[in-house]
Amino acid sequence: MAVVEKTSSFKSLTALSDAEGKNNSSLNGRQYRDLDLFFTKRSKDKDVNTLSNVQAVKRSVRNLVLTNFYEKPFHPEIGSGVRELLFENATPLTSLAINQAITDVIKNYEPRASLNFVDVNAQLDNNAYDITVNFSVINGPPESVDLALTMEIVR
Exposed, middle or buried by CB within 10 Å (0-12, 13-18, 19+), for 103? Predict the structure, then answer.
């Protein structure tokens, strides 16, 4: 999902300084970048917009939470299965299962995020769950990032 430039060990020191020179972040020597999946165009060159650092990791976490198993070609193991759990009876055990599924998928498949907590609240009248994922970006700003989702059953 992430596009991260890697340099091999036999490259010269000037290549490393050039790579650091292109990074506009003062916090680390690596910048996380992903494509904007809404495919919005940049005005200056009409190319697809990119997301960087916190926004890229936040979008990746959101995509992992919303992905089902067998949905990703050649990687059937990647997914959270949260959409399957929406059709279970709304009990505290279902909220706990959603919480555990989200925790597992982020810890296993998003190495750029350090998960702080996941909060799942059931809205019984609306057949929905309010989900808050709190994480911090590794090698990023020290503040934590909140991702709020509302998942509901659409019939």
Answer: middle
- Cα separation, 112 vs 145, in Å, equals 12
CB hemisphere CA count around 120 (13 angstroms): 23
* Cα–Cα distances in angstroms (integers) from residue 74 to residues 69, 70, 71, 110, in the given order: 11, 8, 9, 18
Q: Which residues pair with 148 in a beta bridge?
A: 132
Of 2.60.40.1220, 3.10.450.40, 3.40.50.1820, 3.40.50.300, the CATH number of 29-152 is 3.10.450.40
pLDDT, tens digit, for every residue of 6-18?
A: 333 333 333 333 3
Cβ neighbours around 83 below 10 Å, total = 16
Residue pair 21/31 in contact (Cβ under 8 Å)? The answer is no
| pLDDT tens, position by position, 74-120 | 999 999 999 999 999 888 899 999 999 999 999 999 998 999 999 99
